[in-house]
Protein backbone atom coordinates (compact mmCIF):
# COMPACT_ATOMS: atom_id res chain seq x y z
CA UNK A 1 0.00 0.00 0.00
CA UNK A 2 1.41 3.36 -1.04
CA UNK A 3 1.21 6.34 1.29
CA UNK A 4 -1.81 8.62 0.94
CA UNK A 5 -1.16 11.69 -1.18
CA UNK A 6 -1.68 14.30 1.53
CA UNK A 7 -0.94 17.17 -0.83
CA UNK A 8 -4.36 16.54 -2.38
CA UNK A 9 -6.09 17.10 0.99
CA UNK A 10 -7.34 20.67 0.98
CA UNK A 11 -7.97 23.18 3.78
CA UNK A 12 -11.55 21.85 3.68
CA UNK A 13 -10.38 18.35 4.58
CA UNK A 14 -10.87 16.89 8.05
CA UNK A 15 -8.99 14.11 9.87
CA UNK A 16 -5.79 14.66 7.91
CA UNK A 17 -3.69 13.83 11.00
CA UNK A 18 -5.75 10.78 11.90
CA UNK A 19 -4.16 7.40 11.24
CA UNK A 20 -7.10 5.14 11.91
CA UNK A 21 -10.77 5.02 12.76
CA UNK A 22 -12.24 2.28 14.94
CA UNK A 23 -15.94 1.67 14.45
CA UNK A 24 -18.16 0.03 17.06
CA UNK A 25 -21.19 -1.95 15.91
CA UNK A 26 -24.64 -0.79 16.85
CA UNK A 27 -25.66 -3.91 18.81
CA UNK A 28 -29.21 -3.76 20.14
CA UNK A 29 -30.41 -0.32 19.13
CA UNK A 30 -31.00 0.29 15.43
CA UNK A 31 -30.48 3.48 13.50
CA UNK A 32 -33.63 5.64 13.36
CA UNK A 33 -32.69 9.01 11.89
CA UNK A 34 -33.74 11.86 9.69
CA UNK A 35 -30.83 13.73 8.21
CA UNK A 36 -29.55 15.87 5.35
CA UNK A 37 -26.45 15.23 3.25
CA UNK A 38 -23.99 17.78 1.79
CA UNK A 39 -24.16 19.17 -1.75
CA UNK A 40 -23.40 17.16 -4.86
CA UNK A 41 -19.80 17.04 -6.05
CA UNK A 42 -20.97 16.66 -9.64
CA UNK A 43 -23.26 19.70 -9.51
CA UNK A 44 -20.78 21.80 -7.57
CA UNK A 45 -17.82 21.44 -9.93
CA UNK A 46 -19.91 21.73 -13.10
CA UNK A 47 -21.71 24.82 -11.80
CA UNK A 48 -18.46 26.45 -10.66
CA UNK A 49 -16.76 26.04 -14.04
CA UNK A 50 -19.83 27.02 -16.06
CA UNK A 51 -20.40 30.07 -13.81
CA UNK A 52 -16.76 31.09 -14.31
CA UNK A 53 -17.18 30.82 -18.11
CA UNK A 54 -20.46 32.78 -18.03
CA UNK A 55 -21.25 36.42 -18.65
CA UNK A 56 -22.36 37.92 -15.36
CA UNK A 57 -22.44 36.82 -11.76
CA UNK A 58 -23.82 33.57 -10.35
CA UNK A 59 -24.71 32.77 -6.79
CA UNK A 60 -24.60 29.05 -6.09
CA UNK A 61 -26.00 27.79 -2.81
CA UNK A 62 -25.69 24.33 -1.31
CA UNK A 63 -22.22 23.70 -2.70
CA UNK A 64 -20.20 20.77 -1.44
CA UNK A 65 -17.25 21.85 0.72
CA UNK A 66 -14.72 19.11 0.04
CA UNK A 67 -11.28 18.63 -1.51
CA UNK A 68 -12.69 18.29 -5.04
CA UNK A 69 -14.61 21.56 -4.85
CA UNK A 70 -11.85 23.39 -2.95
CA UNK A 71 -9.33 22.68 -5.70
CA UNK A 72 -11.86 23.71 -8.34
CA UNK A 73 -12.40 27.09 -6.66
CA UNK A 74 -8.65 27.44 -6.13
CA UNK A 75 -7.89 26.80 -9.82
CA UNK A 76 -10.57 29.22 -11.00
CA UNK A 77 -9.31 31.93 -8.64
CA UNK A 78 -5.77 31.42 -9.96
CA UNK A 79 -7.20 31.99 -13.44
CA UNK A 80 -8.39 35.39 -12.23
CA UNK A 81 -12.04 34.61 -11.52
CA UNK A 82 -13.30 36.37 -8.38
CA UNK A 83 -15.09 33.84 -6.18
CA UNK A 84 -16.50 34.69 -2.76
CA UNK A 85 -17.20 31.78 -0.45
CA UNK A 86 -19.66 32.12 2.38
CA UNK A 87 -20.38 28.83 4.11
CA UNK A 88 -21.92 26.67 1.42
CA UNK A 89 -22.77 29.59 -0.86
CA UNK A 90 -20.42 30.99 -3.49
CA UNK A 91 -20.61 34.05 -5.68
CA UNK A 92 -18.75 33.65 -8.97
CA UNK A 93 -18.01 36.61 -11.23
CA UNK A 94 -18.06 35.04 -14.70
CA UNK A 95 -15.44 36.13 -17.21
CA UNK A 96 -17.27 35.39 -20.45
CA UNK A 97 -15.01 32.61 -21.73
CA UNK A 98 -11.66 34.38 -21.23
CA UNK A 99 -9.31 33.93 -18.27
CA UNK A 100 -7.93 37.21 -16.84
CA UNK A 101 -4.65 35.48 -15.79
CA UNK A 102 -2.77 34.58 -18.95
CA UNK A 103 -0.09 32.56 -17.25
CA UNK A 104 -0.97 30.32 -14.34
CA UNK A 105 0.10 27.13 -12.63
CA UNK A 106 -2.91 25.17 -11.40
CA UNK A 107 -3.27 22.25 -9.00
CA UNK A 108 -6.44 20.15 -9.22
CA UNK A 109 -5.90 17.55 -6.48
CA UNK A 110 -7.47 14.14 -7.09
CA UNK A 111 -10.63 15.45 -8.78
CA UNK A 112 -11.65 13.64 -11.96
CA UNK A 113 -14.28 16.31 -12.50
CA UNK A 114 -11.70 19.13 -12.66
CA UNK A 115 -9.19 16.99 -14.59
CA UNK A 116 -11.78 16.33 -17.29
CA UNK A 117 -13.91 19.53 -17.20
CA UNK A 118 -11.23 22.23 -16.99
CA UNK A 119 -8.96 21.51 -20.01
CA UNK A 120 -11.63 22.34 -22.60
CA UNK A 121 -12.58 25.47 -20.66
CA UNK A 122 -8.91 26.53 -20.70
CA UNK A 123 -8.32 25.67 -24.34
CA UNK A 124 -11.34 27.61 -25.60
CA UNK A 125 -9.91 30.96 -24.42
CA UNK A 126 -8.17 33.24 -26.92
CA UNK A 127 -4.77 33.10 -25.19
CA UNK A 128 -2.84 31.98 -22.12
CA UNK A 129 -0.50 29.25 -20.94
CA UNK A 130 -1.67 26.97 -18.15
CA UNK A 131 0.35 24.26 -16.48
CA UNK A 132 -1.95 21.89 -14.65
CA UNK A 133 -0.76 19.44 -12.00
CA UNK A 134 -2.81 16.75 -10.27
CA UNK A 135 -2.48 14.30 -7.39
CA UNK A 136 -0.37 11.18 -7.87
CA UNK A 137 -3.40 9.02 -8.54
CA UNK A 138 -5.10 11.55 -10.82
CA UNK A 139 -1.81 11.64 -12.76
CA UNK A 140 -2.27 7.90 -13.41
CA UNK A 141 -5.92 8.12 -14.41
CA UNK A 142 -6.77 8.29 -18.14
CA UNK A 143 -7.30 11.64 -19.87
CA UNK A 144 -5.82 10.98 -23.31
CA UNK A 145 -9.10 10.42 -25.21
CA UNK A 146 -10.27 13.85 -24.03
CA UNK A 147 -6.95 15.53 -24.86
CA UNK A 148 -6.92 13.95 -28.33
CA UNK A 149 -10.44 15.18 -28.96
CA UNK A 150 -9.46 18.69 -27.84
CA UNK A 151 -6.33 18.55 -30.03
CA UNK A 152 -8.49 17.58 -33.00
CA UNK A 153 -10.41 20.81 -32.28
CA UNK A 154 -7.19 22.84 -32.37
CA UNK A 155 -6.05 22.74 -28.72
CA UNK A 156 -2.32 22.81 -27.95
CA UNK A 157 -1.52 20.34 -25.20
CA UNK A 158 1.93 19.45 -23.96
CA UNK A 159 2.48 16.52 -21.59
CA UNK A 160 5.05 17.40 -18.91
CA UNK A 161 5.95 13.82 -17.93
CA UNK A 162 4.10 10.94 -19.58
CA UNK A 163 2.23 11.05 -22.84
CA UNK A 164 -1.51 11.05 -22.13
CA UNK A 165 -1.33 11.89 -18.43
CA UNK A 166 -1.16 14.81 -16.02
CA UNK A 167 0.82 17.03 -15.46
CA UNK A 168 0.25 18.89 -18.70
CA UNK A 169 0.36 22.38 -20.16
CA UNK A 170 -2.38 23.91 -22.27
CA UNK A 171 -1.67 26.81 -24.60
CA UNK A 172 -5.04 28.38 -25.09
CA UNK A 173 -5.76 29.46 -28.65
CA UNK A 174 -9.45 28.72 -29.09
CA UNK A 175 -11.35 25.65 -30.26
CA UNK A 176 -12.54 25.31 -33.84
CA UNK A 177 -15.76 23.41 -33.24
CA UNK A 178 -17.08 21.08 -35.92
CA UNK A 179 -17.30 17.34 -35.56
CA UNK A 180 -15.49 15.24 -32.96
CA UNK A 181 -15.73 11.53 -32.17
CA UNK A 182 -14.92 10.25 -28.69
CA UNK A 183 -15.40 6.94 -26.90
CA UNK A 184 -17.56 6.94 -23.78
CA UNK A 185 -16.32 3.54 -22.54
CA UNK A 186 -13.70 4.74 -20.09
CA UNK A 187 -15.22 7.87 -18.60
CA UNK A 188 -18.35 9.92 -19.15
CA UNK A 189 -16.41 12.92 -17.85
CA UNK A 190 -14.49 13.28 -21.15
CA UNK A 191 -17.78 14.00 -22.87
CA UNK A 192 -18.97 16.40 -20.19
CA UNK A 193 -15.65 18.22 -20.54
CA UNK A 194 -16.13 18.69 -24.29
CA UNK A 195 -19.73 19.79 -23.82
CA UNK A 196 -18.94 22.41 -21.17
CA UNK A 197 -16.38 24.11 -23.46
CA UNK A 198 -18.58 23.64 -26.55
CA UNK A 199 -20.45 26.98 -26.62
CA UNK A 200 -17.13 28.88 -26.81
CA UNK A 201 -15.87 27.08 -29.93
CA UNK A 202 -15.82 29.07 -33.17
CA UNK A 203 -18.43 26.86 -34.86
CA UNK A 204 -21.17 24.53 -33.69
CA UNK A 205 -19.64 21.51 -31.92
CA UNK A 206 -21.00 18.09 -32.86
CA UNK A 207 -20.00 15.19 -30.60
CA UNK A 208 -20.37 11.59 -31.80
CA UNK A 209 -20.02 8.62 -29.47
CA UNK A 210 -19.14 5.51 -31.50
CA UNK A 211 -19.78 3.06 -28.63
CA UNK A 212 -21.62 3.73 -25.36
CA UNK A 213 -21.19 5.98 -22.35
CA UNK A 214 -20.46 4.52 -18.93
CA UNK A 215 -22.78 6.38 -16.55
CA UNK A 216 -24.53 8.36 -19.27
CA UNK A 217 -26.69 10.10 -16.60
CA UNK A 218 -23.71 12.33 -15.78
CA UNK A 219 -23.68 13.58 -19.37
CA UNK A 220 -27.39 14.36 -19.01
CA UNK A 221 -26.60 16.33 -15.85
CA UNK A 222 -24.11 18.38 -17.89
CA UNK A 223 -26.59 19.00 -20.72
CA UNK A 224 -29.32 20.07 -18.27
CA UNK A 225 -27.03 22.40 -16.38
CA UNK A 226 -25.81 23.97 -19.63
CA UNK A 227 -29.45 24.55 -20.47
CA UNK A 228 -30.10 26.19 -17.11
CA UNK A 229 -27.17 28.55 -17.76
CA UNK A 230 -28.77 29.52 -21.08
CA UNK A 231 -27.15 27.21 -23.67
CA UNK A 232 -29.59 25.02 -25.58
CA UNK A 233 -28.07 21.82 -26.87
CA UNK A 234 -29.61 19.26 -29.22
CA UNK A 235 -29.12 15.53 -28.63
CA UNK A 236 -30.59 12.11 -29.32
CA UNK A 237 -32.01 9.77 -26.67
CA UNK A 238 -28.93 7.63 -26.07
CA UNK A 239 -26.65 10.70 -26.14
CA UNK A 240 -24.51 9.35 -28.99
CA UNK A 241 -25.06 12.48 -31.10
CA UNK A 242 -24.97 15.88 -29.42
CA UNK A 243 -24.76 19.41 -30.85
CA UNK A 244 -23.66 22.51 -28.99
CA UNK A 245 -24.35 25.88 -30.62
CA UNK A 246 -21.92 28.80 -30.53
CA UNK A 247 -23.26 30.62 -27.51
CA UNK A 248 -22.44 31.99 -24.06
CA UNK A 249 -23.53 30.94 -20.60
CA UNK A 250 -25.43 33.56 -18.61
CA UNK A 251 -24.75 33.95 -14.90
CA UNK A 252 -27.50 32.49 -12.75
CA UNK A 253 -28.44 32.05 -9.09
CA UNK A 254 -29.00 28.43 -8.30
CA UNK A 255 -29.53 26.05 -5.37
CA UNK A 256 -27.53 22.88 -6.01
CA UNK A 257 -28.77 19.36 -5.35
CA UNK A 258 -27.60 17.27 -2.43
CA UNK A 259 -25.23 14.39 -3.18
CA UNK A 260 -27.06 11.15 -3.98
CA UNK A 261 -23.81 9.16 -3.83
CA UNK A 262 -23.17 10.27 -0.23
CA UNK A 263 -26.82 9.56 0.69
CA UNK A 264 -26.45 5.99 -0.45
CA UNK A 265 -24.02 5.05 2.36
CA UNK A 266 -26.65 6.08 4.92
CA UNK A 267 -29.42 4.17 3.16
CA UNK A 268 -27.07 1.18 3.17
CA UNK A 269 -26.58 1.66 6.91
CA UNK A 270 -30.35 1.45 7.45
CA UNK A 271 -30.46 -1.61 5.18
CA UNK A 272 -27.84 -3.64 7.05
CA UNK A 273 -28.81 -2.65 10.59
CA UNK A 274 -32.55 -3.15 10.17
CA UNK A 275 -32.86 0.57 10.87
CA UNK A 276 -34.60 3.47 9.19
CA UNK A 277 -33.01 6.52 7.62
CA UNK A 278 -34.84 9.38 5.98
CA UNK A 279 -32.86 11.89 3.95
CA UNK A 280 -34.89 15.01 3.59
CA UNK A 281 -32.93 17.04 1.08
CA UNK A 282 -33.11 14.55 -1.81
CA UNK A 283 -35.85 13.04 -3.93
CA UNK A 284 -36.11 10.75 -6.96
CA UNK A 285 -36.46 13.92 -9.03
CA UNK A 286 -32.78 14.01 -9.98
CA UNK A 287 -30.51 12.82 -12.78
CA UNK A 288 -27.87 11.64 -10.32
CA UNK A 289 -27.64 7.93 -11.15
CA UNK A 290 -26.77 6.80 -7.63
CA UNK A 291 -30.31 7.63 -6.52
CA UNK A 292 -31.27 4.26 -8.08
CA UNK A 293 -29.48 2.47 -5.27
CA UNK A 294 -32.92 2.88 -3.66
CA UNK A 295 -34.19 0.28 -6.15
CA UNK A 296 -31.39 -2.10 -5.18
CA UNK A 297 -32.09 -1.78 -1.45
CA UNK A 298 -35.73 -2.50 -2.28
CA UNK A 299 -34.73 -5.54 -4.34
CA UNK A 300 -32.80 -6.73 -1.28
CA UNK A 301 -35.99 -6.59 0.81
CA UNK A 302 -35.87 -3.07 2.28
CA UNK A 303 -38.88 -0.80 2.36
CA UNK A 304 -38.30 2.41 0.39
CA UNK A 305 -40.51 5.48 0.59
CA UNK A 306 -39.99 7.87 -2.30
CA UNK A 307 -41.41 11.12 -0.93
CA UNK A 308 -41.81 14.35 -2.84
CA UNK A 309 -38.89 15.92 -1.00
CA UNK A 310 -37.36 13.02 0.89
CA UNK A 311 -36.35 9.38 0.53
CA UNK A 312 -36.58 6.88 3.34
CA UNK A 313 -35.07 3.40 3.53
CA UNK A 314 -36.02 0.88 6.19
CA UNK A 315 -33.95 -2.25 6.57
CA UNK A 316 -35.04 -5.86 7.13
CA UNK A 317 -34.02 -8.67 9.44
CA UNK A 318 -32.42 -10.55 6.54
CA UNK A 319 -31.27 -8.89 3.30
CA UNK A 320 -31.91 -10.83 0.11
CA UNK A 321 -29.12 -11.64 -2.32
CA UNK A 322 -28.90 -14.24 -5.07
CA UNK A 323 -28.80 -11.87 -8.05
CA UNK A 324 -26.49 -10.51 -10.72
CA UNK A 325 -26.57 -6.83 -11.48
CA UNK A 326 -24.90 -4.50 -13.95
CA UNK A 327 -23.63 -1.44 -12.07
CA UNK A 328 -22.41 0.30 -15.23
CA UNK A 329 -24.85 3.18 -14.81
CA UNK A 330 -24.09 3.82 -11.14
CA UNK A 331 -20.62 2.41 -10.80
CA UNK A 332 -19.55 4.66 -7.89
CA UNK A 333 -21.88 2.52 -5.78
CA UNK A 334 -20.21 -0.78 -6.67
CA UNK A 335 -18.24 -0.62 -3.45
CA UNK A 336 -21.32 0.13 -1.32
CA UNK A 337 -23.16 -2.88 -2.72
CA UNK A 338 -20.10 -5.11 -2.40
CA UNK A 339 -19.62 -4.05 1.24
CA UNK A 340 -23.19 -4.91 2.27
CA UNK A 341 -23.35 -8.04 0.09
CA UNK A 342 -21.93 -10.43 2.76
CA UNK A 343 -25.02 -9.71 4.88
CA UNK A 344 -27.40 -10.95 2.18
CA UNK A 345 -28.78 -14.50 2.04
CA UNK A 346 -27.27 -15.34 -1.35
CA UNK A 347 -24.32 -14.28 -3.49
CA UNK A 348 -24.38 -10.95 -5.33
CA UNK A 349 -22.57 -10.62 -8.65
CA UNK A 350 -21.69 -7.16 -9.95
CA UNK A 351 -20.85 -6.77 -13.64
CA UNK A 352 -19.91 -4.14 -16.28
CA UNK A 353 -17.69 -1.94 -14.13
CA UNK A 354 -14.22 -2.49 -15.53
CA UNK A 355 -13.76 1.29 -15.77
CA UNK A 356 -13.69 1.63 -11.97
CA UNK A 357 -10.25 0.04 -12.02
CA UNK A 358 -9.21 3.55 -13.20
CA UNK A 359 -10.90 5.50 -10.42
CA UNK A 360 -9.32 6.73 -7.16
CA UNK A 361 -7.94 3.21 -6.73
CA UNK A 362 -8.33 -0.01 -8.69
CA UNK A 363 -11.65 -0.35 -6.93
CA UNK A 364 -12.42 -3.93 -7.96
CA UNK A 365 -9.09 -5.13 -6.66
CA UNK A 366 -9.30 -2.99 -3.51
CA UNK A 367 -12.72 -4.23 -2.40
CA UNK A 368 -11.91 -7.88 -3.23
CA UNK A 369 -8.68 -7.65 -1.20
CA UNK A 370 -10.34 -6.07 1.83
CA UNK A 371 -13.39 -8.37 1.86
CA UNK A 372 -11.09 -11.40 1.55
CA UNK A 373 -9.06 -10.13 4.51
CA UNK A 374 -12.25 -10.34 6.57
CA UNK A 375 -12.76 -13.95 5.50
CA UNK A 376 -15.49 -13.24 2.97
CA UNK A 377 -15.44 -15.41 -0.15
CA UNK A 378 -15.07 -13.15 -3.17
CA UNK A 379 -14.48 -13.88 -6.85
CA UNK A 380 -12.76 -11.13 -8.82
CA UNK A 381 -13.52 -10.64 -12.53
CA UNK A 382 -12.02 -8.16 -14.94
CA UNK A 383 -15.31 -6.24 -15.01
CA UNK A 384 -16.70 -6.92 -11.55
CA UNK A 385 -16.92 -9.32 -8.64
CA UNK A 386 -19.07 -11.90 -6.88
CA UNK A 387 -19.50 -11.63 -3.11
CA UNK A 388 -20.74 -14.64 -1.12
CA UNK A 389 -22.71 -14.41 2.12
CA UNK A 390 -20.71 -14.63 5.34
CA UNK A 391 -19.90 -12.93 8.61
CA UNK A 392 -16.93 -10.60 8.12
CA UNK A 393 -14.20 -10.91 10.76
CA UNK A 394 -13.19 -7.53 12.16
CA UNK A 395 -9.67 -6.41 11.32
CA UNK A 396 -7.75 -3.33 10.19
CA UNK A 397 -8.60 -2.41 6.62
CA UNK A 398 -6.89 -0.19 4.05
CA UNK A 399 -8.67 2.73 2.41
CA UNK A 400 -6.32 3.02 -0.59
CA UNK A 401 -6.59 6.85 -0.39
CA UNK A 402 -10.04 6.29 -1.89
CA UNK A 403 -13.02 7.99 -0.20
CA UNK A 404 -15.50 5.40 -1.45
CA UNK A 405 -13.43 2.46 -0.19
CA UNK A 406 -13.32 4.11 3.27
CA UNK A 407 -17.03 4.95 3.35
CA UNK A 408 -18.14 1.53 2.07
CA UNK A 409 -15.90 -0.44 4.46
CA UNK A 410 -17.05 1.72 7.39
CA UNK A 411 -20.52 0.24 6.87
CA UNK A 412 -19.20 -3.20 7.78
CA UNK A 413 -17.88 -1.78 11.06
CA UNK A 414 -21.42 -0.84 12.07
CA UNK A 415 -22.36 -4.56 11.93
CA UNK A 416 -19.33 -6.53 13.15
CA UNK A 417 -16.84 -5.78 15.94
CA UNK A 418 -13.16 -5.03 15.42
CA UNK A 419 -13.27 -3.05 12.18
CA UNK A 420 -10.67 -0.29 11.89
CA UNK A 421 -9.85 1.67 8.77
CA UNK A 422 -6.52 3.29 8.01
CA UNK A 423 -6.43 6.89 6.78
CA UNK A 424 -10.13 7.67 7.16
CA UNK A 425 -9.34 11.29 6.20
CA UNK A 426 -9.48 10.32 2.52
CA UNK A 427 -13.27 10.78 2.74
CA UNK A 428 -12.59 14.52 2.37
CA UNK A 429 -12.48 14.12 -1.41
CA UNK A 430 -16.28 14.22 -1.45
CA UNK A 431 -17.52 14.16 2.16
CA UNK A 432 -15.23 15.53 4.89
CA UNK A 433 -18.11 15.25 7.38
CA UNK A 434 -18.80 11.56 6.70
CA UNK A 435 -17.76 10.31 10.17
CA UNK A 436 -19.58 13.19 11.88
CA UNK A 437 -22.74 12.23 10.02
CA UNK A 438 -22.20 8.58 10.90
CA UNK A 439 -21.83 9.46 14.60
CA UNK A 440 -25.05 11.44 14.47
CA UNK A 441 -26.88 8.27 13.44
CA UNK A 442 -25.73 6.69 16.71
CA UNK A 443 -22.69 4.75 15.45
CA UNK A 444 -19.67 5.13 17.71
CA UNK A 445 -16.40 6.05 15.98
CA UNK A 446 -13.03 6.60 17.63
CA UNK A 447 -10.02 8.13 15.91
CA UNK A 448 -6.49 7.01 16.65
O1 LIG B 1 -19.41 13.67 -14.20
C1 LIG B 1 -19.38 13.40 -13.00
O2 LIG B 1 -19.68 14.23 -12.13
C2 LIG B 1 -18.98 12.03 -12.59
C3 LIG B 1 -18.92 11.03 -13.52
C4 LIG B 1 -18.55 9.64 -13.18
O3 LIG B 1 -17.25 9.41 -13.68
P1 LIG B 1 -16.88 8.35 -14.88
O4 LIG B 1 -17.83 8.54 -15.97
O5 LIG B 1 -15.48 8.73 -15.18
O6 LIG B 1 -16.99 6.98 -14.26
C5 LIG B 1 -18.56 9.38 -11.68
O7 LIG B 1 -17.89 8.18 -11.42
C6 LIG B 1 -17.93 10.51 -10.92
O8 LIG B 1 -17.94 10.27 -9.54
C7 LIG B 1 -18.67 11.81 -11.18
C1 LIG C 1 -14.89 8.35 -9.47
C2 LIG C 1 -15.08 9.33 -8.60
O1 LIG C 1 -14.57 10.58 -8.68
P1 LIG C 1 -13.92 11.46 -9.84
O2 LIG C 1 -14.82 12.65 -9.97
O3 LIG C 1 -12.57 11.82 -9.33
O4 LIG C 1 -13.88 10.63 -11.08
C3 LIG C 1 -15.92 9.13 -7.39
O5 LIG C 1 -16.28 10.13 -6.72
O6 LIG C 1 -16.25 7.99 -7.06
TrEMBL record:
GO terms for molecular function: 3-phosphoshikimate 1-carboxyvinyltransferase activity. One of its GO terms (biological process) is aromatic amino acid family biosynthetic process. Pfam families: EPSP_synthase. 3-phosphoshikimate binds at residues 41-42, 46, 187-189, 332, 359. Pathway: Metabolic intermediate biosynthesis; chorismate biosynthesis; chorismate from D-erythrose 4-phosphate and phosphoenolpyruvate: step 6/7. Its EC number is 2.5.1.19. It comes from the Bacteria. InterPro entries: Enolpyruvate_Tfrase_dom (IPR001986), Enolpyruvate_Tfrase_sf (IPR036968), EPSP_synthase (IPR006264), EPSP_synthase_CS (IPR023193), RNA3'P_cycl/enolpyr_Trfase_a/b (IPR013792). It is an enzyme of class 2 (transferase). Gene3D superfamilies: Enolpyruvate transferase domain (3.65.10.10). It catalyses: 3-phosphoshikimate + phosphoenolpyruvate = 5-O-(1-carboxyvinyl)-3-phosphoshikimate + phosphate. Monomer. Belongs to the EPSP synthase family. This is 3-phosphoshikimate 1-carboxyvinyltransferase. The lineage of its organism: Bacteria, Bacillati, Bacillota, Bacilli, Bacillales.
